[in-house]
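Hi, here's the filled form for the chain we discussed.

Project: internal
Contact: R.S.
Residues: 384
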Amino acid sequence: MKNIILCLAMLALPVITDAAEPRARDLGIPFDGTPGELNAITDVSGVTVGHSTIIEDYPNGSAARSGVTAVLPRGESSIMLPVFAGTAVLNGAGEMTGSIWVEASGFLEGPVMLTTTQSVGMVFEETIKWRVTHAERDVTGYAWSDPVVAETWGGQLNDENGFYVHGEHVVEAIESAKSGPVAEGNVGGGTGMTCYQFKCGIGTASRLVETEDGTFTVGALVQANYGWRDILQIAGVPVGREIPVEQIADIRTPMDDEMGSIIVVIATDAPLLPHQLKRVATRAGLGIARVGGMASNGSGDIFIAFSTANPTELRSGTNLSARLLGNQQITPVFSGAVLAVEEAIVNAMIAARTMTGFEGTTVNAIDHEQLRGALRKYNRLEEE
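And the returned structure, exactly as it came back:
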């Protein structure tokens, strides 16, 4: 039997965001590059995103601020039609299951799932069950699956040892995945996450990139949960040092070392092979650096990039061929990935709302007007 929700009405501010929440550009924050129509990973045609958000308080004092986010590279077709993919690790204090097979095979088969640390096993198993239920059988008679499940630690706001993610949340995230605007902030796997000592979570952005072979889209989605205040930079401004100390979260864990992680998912419709996508994934670290991140010893900075190109060519068969973008044309894709990751992180912070969770811990959202004031001080605000 599910426990009764007790305290949602007691929270001072909304904790669930939707796609209508303000985004970084709405505040006048300047970014380089040209975004796609939605400025989201779903600007890459075929990509869908779904969330399952868990916000509950329990009579024993425990609290759930958790969830699951699913990124489906080819929407409903992801269950049987793979994409070329590559992974990269900037610092490895974290987990992304299935990454060994992605690297060995060059394929991502199925969704990318994001959740909180202690729930990786549950999400892994339930994603396999979902695929067994829905996918065609392979030559072994099974719908074999090695899902990609990545995590960040939500223990500031979520009782990680409560294990509140269950099978229905995994199914909800996968089956609710859709194209269009993507909810950001306190949603899905990002529900309990904190970055730069401000409330954070899920964020997304995209870039249109020009090559001699045409215009392509690069989109990024992040689950951001890393960094301490002093290193935060937005649009080149040392914002973290400009925000008054009283605005910083009352966080129980000392932040003299960066005890957090970030997962980055990069999608593109540029026709790239797995070794090229690994290079694209590596560039996520540069986007993180533009916001001040430095991948400390305790941080898990783990990335995956995939291409939705070559859908027909990747169907099972023999004598298959695939298109690819030459290495001489790939630099704009690198640039698009860097810029999309940077903006996705900031979008995660802007969309997030102040949240109170486990043991009464409160993590404050960044104050939009104070942020605008800091940018204005350095002449970096795009005024209306």
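Let me know if anything looks off before we file it.
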